[in-house]
Amino acid sequence: MSGSVFAVGVTRRAEKDIRKLSPKLKNKLYDILTEVIAPDPFCDKELIGDLEGSFSYPLTYKDRIIYSVDKKKKTVFLERARTHYDD
């Protein structure tokens, strides 16, 4: 890891998603946030359409982590932590 690591914030909607995750997935989410996304928030797919400006990173085969980045505050905001297929 080089440079500085971004802080991580969690939205209320993401908090609700996290409560629904199994303990194993909560641990996986934490590991991804701290070891992958916080050190390099631009590491994965930038989204378009309704979620333009946000990024997506896989949590499971169908579940995605959706987050936005505030460069000035050096903070990653977790927006969703569940599937976007379960509308």
Helix content: 25-40%
Largest sheet: 5 strands, mixed
Topology pattern, helix = H, strand = E: EHHEEEE
Looking at CATH, the homologous superfamily is: RelE-like
Which spans have pLDDT < 50 for at least 5 consecutive residues? none
Q: The CATH topology, please? A: YaeB-like fold
Mean pLDDT: 89
- Rg, Å, rounded: 12 Å
With strands numbered from the N-terminus, the spatial order across the biggest sheet is 1-5-4-3-2
CATH class: Alpha Beta
- Which CATH architecture would you pick? 2-Layer Sandwich
Portion of residues in beta strands equals: 25-35%
Tell me the number of helical segments per DSSP (H or I, 4 or more residues long): 2
Q: What structural category arises from helix and sheet content?
A: alpha+beta
The best one-word shape is globular
Number of strands: 5
Query: Structurally, how many domains make up the residues?
Result: 1
Produce the secondary structure layout.
Elements: E1 7-10, H1 12-20, H2 23-37, E2 45-46, E3 54-58, E4 64-70, E5 75-80
In short:
This protein is α+β, with helices and mostly antiparallel strands. It contains two helices and five strands; from the N terminus they run βααββββ.
